[in-house]
Every structure is written in structure tokens, then in C-alpha cells.
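Lab notebook: predicted structure, single chain.

Context: the supervisor wants predicted structures on file for every construct in the current expression panel, including those that have not yet been purified. This is the next one on the list. No modifications to the sequence; it matches the entry in the shared construct table.
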Amino acid sequence: MIEFALTIPGTRNWYRVLIFPRVNQMHEFYDAQWKSGEVCSCKHQHRGKIDRGFLGQVNYIRPKMPDGSLGQILLCKKAIGAGIVSHEMTHAAVFYLRNHQGMNISNPRNDERLAYLQGDLTREFWREWWKTQEAR
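Prediction complete. Output recorded below exactly as produced.
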């Protein structure tokens, strides 16, 4: 498993990124955390059951932990690509801005702030990802 942290620029807040070798390992990890009550997730809040087709997931910790941890971004190594990374970083950015900055995401005046944060998280993800690949 690959693990690293992504920090919200200008803050002490961060997400833990876990990249699993196989999708079933990611699902098992997610299920165990959900059942233990350690995290909450939009997948369960909206659907009531897990979607076995998911290849990425953002799990949120409420309230934010004293060390600044916001939650986890779970990914499957075989599915790493621009689309899924951008998608999950958007979830992470929206959660942070909505729940920790009190931002109304549906207000068009906030588009730029969301776009910048999503871009920052995506750029940081790829920087960390390539460090792990060079070390192998």
C-alpha cells in the first residue's frame, strides 16, 4: 500500500491518502472503517449501501481531528489516472470548503476558490504519487 498526506494550502488541515494494490482491499478497508464508526462517507449517506464499482473514495472525519486531519482519500493503484484523481480531489475540496470554511458551494461567486483548491490538491497528489514511483 502507498500512503502519503495532502495538505490544504495555507493551513494545518490535511487528508491521508491510501492507495491499495487491489480494489477488493480498498473495499474491505472501507467497510471495516465504516462499521467501526471511524469515518463517514457520502456513499453511505446517500445510497445506504456501498457501490462495489467504486474505484476511489473520500472518507470524512467529523469533527476535524486536533492534528488537522480531515479524512482519507482511498484509491486503487490500477485505477490511478487523471479522471479519478481529479474526481476525488473535487470531493475533498468541496467537503473542506463546505464543512470547514462554511462556503456555499452552489454560489457561482465561489467557483474560483473551489477550482483553485481542487487544482492545488490534484497537483500535490501527482507530486507525491511520482515520488513514490521514483522510489520503487
